[in-house]
Write a structure and sequence with these properties.
CATH class of one domain: Alpha Beta
CATH topology of one domain: Aspartate Aminotransferase, domain 2
Number of strands: 7
Distance between the termini: 41 Å
Length: 330
C-alpha cells in the first residue's frame, strides 16, 4: 500500500463522531471545574446533612459570637501597577533605621545582578510545583553547594542544609553532643561572649532536658566539667581568640567543643575545624540575607564525619556511579 493510500485508509477508519480540537476547547468549563459545586450538588449535600440552605448550615455550625454578618469593607479591584504603587506607599511610611548593634544580625547589600537573576527570577517562584524535576534538581544543587561552602569555610567534614538560624543551630549542637558524648556530666558551658539570643535559646532547650547551663569566661571552660562547651568565634565584642589549647584541654576531659562562627569572618580567620572544634554552627545571614525582623537566616551546622549518623536536619548528598566517579544526570 502506498503512503497516500495508507493515509486515506486511516482517514476512512476514523469514527464519524470524532471531535475536533476546537470543539474540545470548552472555555466555559473553568468555573464549574475549579470554583466549586453546582446548585444541584449543593442541594444534595444539604439534604444529606439535614439543612435546608447554606445560610441555615452557617447558623448551625458557626457560633454567633464570632460570626461577622457584615460584608468585608474591601476596596474595589486594582490593576497590577496600581496595587504596586499602593504597596510602595505603605512601605514608604516605615521608619527605616540602620542597626549598629551587630550581635549576629548585620545589614547586607545584595548586588542587583543577584536580585534580578536569582531572587527575583520568576523561574524560582512560578513553578507549578516544587516537585517538578527541573526546579527540584536546581534546589538540590543549590543546597549541596551551600553544604560544600560551609564545609570549606568551617574546616569540617560534613554540613547540613536545614537549620533555621544560629541560635537554634547552637541548641541542636548541644543536644547532639549530649547524645554522643562519653562524659557523665550533665553540664553545658556557654562562654559569656556568646550572643545573648543564642544563650536564651540554649537555656530554653536545655531546661526540659535537665541540662545545666553554666556561663563564664571562655578561659574557664575546661574547668567546668561540662560534656560540651559553646564558644563564639569571633566573640560578641569582636575578639578573635586562639582556642587550640582550650579545645585540647576540653577534649582531654572527655568533652566536646561547639563553635558559633561567623561565615564571613571565616574567609579570613583560622577555621574552627583546624583548632579543634567538634561542631560548628552559625548563620548565612552575612551573605546577603535581609535582617527580616529577626529571621529566619539560613542557619548551618557542620561537624566531624564521626557524627554524621546523629547530626540533626537534612543532608543533600552526591552519589557515585558504577565506576566510582561522581554521578551526574543529563
Amino acid at each position: 500500500m502506498k503512503r497516500g493510500e495508507a493515509r486515506g485508509a486511516a482517514h476512512a477508519k476514523r469514527p464519524a463522531h470524532a471531535t475536533t480540537l476546537a470543539a474540545l476547547e470548552d472555555h466555559g468549563a473553568f468555573v464549574p471545574r475549579h470554583i466549586g459545586s453546582t446548585d444541584d450538588e449543593q442541594a444534595a449535600m444539604l439534604a444529606a446533612i439535614g439543612q435546608p440552605t447554606r445560610a441555615a448550615l452557617m447558623d448551625a455550625v458557626v457560633p454567633a459570637t464570632i460570626r461577622n454578618r457584615a460584608p468585608l469593607p474591601l476596596p474595589g479591584p486594582r490593576g497590577e501597577q496600581e496595587a504596586l504603587a499602593a504597596l510602595r506607599a505603605i512601605a514608604a511610611r516605615n521608619d527605616v533605621k540602620r542597626s549598629f548593634i551587630g550581635q549576629g544580625y548585620y545589614g547586607t547589600h545584595t548586588p542587583p545582578v543577584i536580585l534580578r537573576n536569582i531572587l527575583e527570577n520568576p523561574a524560582w517562584y512560578t513553578a507549578y510545583t516544587p516537585y517538578q524535576p527541573e526546579i527540584a534538581q536546581g534546589r538540590l544543587e543549590a543546597l549541596v553547594n551551600f553544604q560544600t561552602m560551609v564545609c570549606d569555610l568551617t574546616g569540617m567534614a560534613i554540613a547540613n542544609a536545614s537549620m533555621l538560624d544560629e541560635s537554634t543551630a547552637a541548641a541542636e549542637a548541644m543536644t547532639l553532643c549530649h547524645r554522643l558524648g562519653k562524659s557523665e556530666s550533665n553540664r553545658f558551658f556557654v562562654a559569656d561572649d556568646v550572643f545573648a539570643q543564642t544563650q536564651d535559646v540554649v537555656r530554653t532547650r536545655a531546661e526540659p532536658l535537665g541540662i545545666e547551663i553554666l556561663t563564664g569566661p571562655a578561659a574557664d571552660a575546661a574547668k567546668a566539667g561540662a560534656f560540651a562547651i559553646l564558644l563564639q568565634y569571633p566573640g560578641a565584642n569582636g575578639d578573635v581568640r586562639d582556642y587550640r589549647a582550650l579545645a585540647a584541654a576540653v577534649h582531654a576531659g572527655g568533652g566536646h567543643v561547639v563553635a558559633a562562627a561567623d561565615l564571613l569572618a571565616l574567609t579570613l580567620v583560622v577555621p574552627p575545624g583546624e583548632w579543634g572544634a567538634d561542631v560548628v554552627v552559625g548563620s548565612a545571614q552575612r551573605f546577603g540575607v535581609p535582617m527580616g525582623y529577626g529571621g529566619p537566616h539560613a542557619g548551618y551546622l557542620a561537624t566531624r564525619d564521626d557524627f554524621k549518623r546523629s547530626m540533626p536536619g537534612r543532608l543533600v548528598g552526591v552519589t557515585v556511579d558504577a565506576n566510582g566517579g561522581p554521578a551526574s544526570s543529563a
